[in-house]
Structures are given as structure tokens and as C-alpha cells.
Amino acid sequence: MAFLMKSMLSNQVKNLGLGGGGEESKEESGPSDPAAAAGMTREEYEEYQKQIVEEKMERDAAFAQKKAERACLRVHLREKYRLPKVR
């Protein structure tokens, strides 16, 4: 992950160059491979994509669990204080 951040930051700094950007724009339009565009090898790019998918799944699972906990707490408080369902 640190490698990805370092490469992304270095690419952004390179793109900030003052004038003389003709060569850089040719380089950016050249590679059609997303791994080459991100400055990574194919294997690094695939590993990065796997990490993104895994992190998204973990976030979704944590969100679903918190949502269920909130719903359970709401039901418990409604029953305890005999509150009507508001919708």
C-alpha cells in the first residue's frame, strides 16, 4: 500500500511541472494498460485490485453489522419505552 501511495504522489508531482509538458502528455496517452498507466507492473496492479476488493468487502460487512446492531437497539428501545414505529 505504501508503494501505491508513493507512486501516486510521485506521478502527481511530475504532472505539476511548469511548462514543457508536451512529452508528458504523450506518455500519458500512450499506455492503454491500466497497470502501466498507474506506474506498476501487471502483478502489482492485480494485487492492488485484489486489495481494493477485499477492503470493500470488509467495509460492507462492518457496515451491515453496525446497521443490524442499530436496528436491534431501536427495536429494544421501542419495546422498553412502548414507542410507536415512526416511518
Automatic annotation (TrEMBL):
It comes from the Eukaryota. GO terms for cellular component: SNARE complex; terminal bouton. Residues 14-44 are annotated as: Disordered. InterPro entries: Synaphin (IPR008849). Pfam families: Synaphin. Keywords: Exocytosis, Neurotransmitter transport, Synapse, Transport. Signal peptide: none annotated. It is found in: Synapse. GO terms for biological process: regulation of neurotransmitter secretion; synaptic vesicle exocytosis. One of its GO terms (molecular function) is syntaxin binding. Its main location: other. Belongs to the complexin/synaphin family. This is Complexin 4. It comes from Chelydra serpentina. The lineage of its organism: Eukaryota, Metazoa, Chordata, Craniata, Vertebrata. The gene is CPLX4.
